[in-house]
UniProtKB/TrEMBL annotation:
Quaternary structure, from the entry: Interacts with PSMC3. Part of a transient complex (modulator) containing PSMD9, PSMC6 and PSMC3 formed during the assembly of the 26S proteasome.
GO CC entries: cytoplasm; nucleus
InterPro entries hit by this protein: Nas2_N, PDZ, PDZ_6, PDZ_sf, PSMD9
Domain PDZ: 108-181
Transmembrane segments: none
Function: Acts as a chaperone during the assembly of the 26S proteasome, specifically of the base subcomplex of the PA700/19S regulatory complex (RC). During the base subcomplex assembly is part of an intermediate PSMD9:PSMC6:PSMC3 module, also known as modulator trimer complex; PSMD9 is released during the further base assembly process.
Protein's UniProt name: 26S proteasome non-ATPase regulatory subunit 9
Organism: Sinosuthora webbiana
Pfam families per the UniProt record, alphabetical: Nas2_N, PDZ_6
Primary gene name: Psmd9
Entry keyword set: Chaperone
């Protein structure tokens, strides 16, 4: 049987196929030994001639010789398949290690890219439960990098945010924040609610 995956990576399916082949060979070897057992318990090495040197008449010599020959061939096949199973498992394991290393490298690259986050200009320091801000998913300590059209480049004071909120009542605003070192987008709709203001959160400017 040819080695699995010639020119392509070894898969779990290849290994399963080899194990099935191994099981088939073992079953064939067992059947051959049972056949020998049925011939007066003749094994692999008992003589096939009687005391006078004549072929034994109490057994089917052809069947015995065929079974013995098949056992030798099958045992060689079994040895070869076991070697293939071992090699395939080794390759599979090596590829898993490679994949793990690649995943770690990708995670590191992502972490590095997160370090170049945009500059925040304000921070959320209070969110009232049940408010539009709370419903949108805004959280305390979120650092704001974009609030509608306001960003670090054009932000002067909190009045900039207040103006955007007043002009966006009832309409969703795109808000981008930094949370736990990651960029998070929030859809915030300023509107009347049971509490004070249109947002229900407190925002303070960040001193840079």
């Amino acid at each position: 049987m040819a080695e699995p995956g010639g020119g392509r990576p070894v898969t779990v399916s290849d290994v399963q196929q080899l194990v099935r082949r191994k099981d088939e060979i073992e079953a064939q070897i067992k059947a051959c030994y049972e056949l020998l057992e049925g011939q007066k318990g003749v094994g692999m090495h008992e003589p096939l001639v009687d005391a006078e040197g004549f072929p034994r008449a109490d057994i089917d010599l052809y069947q015995v010789r065929t079974a013995r020959h098949n056992i030798i061939c099958l045992q060689n096949d079994h040895k070869a398949v076991m070697k293939q199973v071992e090699e395939a498992l080794h390759k599979l394991h090596a590829r898993e290690k490679e994949k793990h290393a690649r995943d770690e490298a990708e995670a590191l690259a992502e972490a590095m890219s997160q370090q170049s986050l945009p500059q925040a200009f304000a921070k959320v320091n209070a969110v009232t439960p049940g408010s539009p801000a709370s419903v949108s998913g805004l959280q305390v300590d979120d650092e704001i990098v974009e609030f509608g059209s306001v960003n670090a480049n054009n932000f002067q004071n909190l009045q900039n945010i207040a103006t955007v909120v007043q002009h966006s009542e009832g309409r969703p605003l795109s808000v981008t924040v930094i949370r736990g070192g990651r960029r998070v987008h929030v859809g915030l709709t300023p509107k009347r609610w049971s509490g004070k203001g249109l947002l229900g959160c407190n925002i303070i400017p960040l001193q840079r």
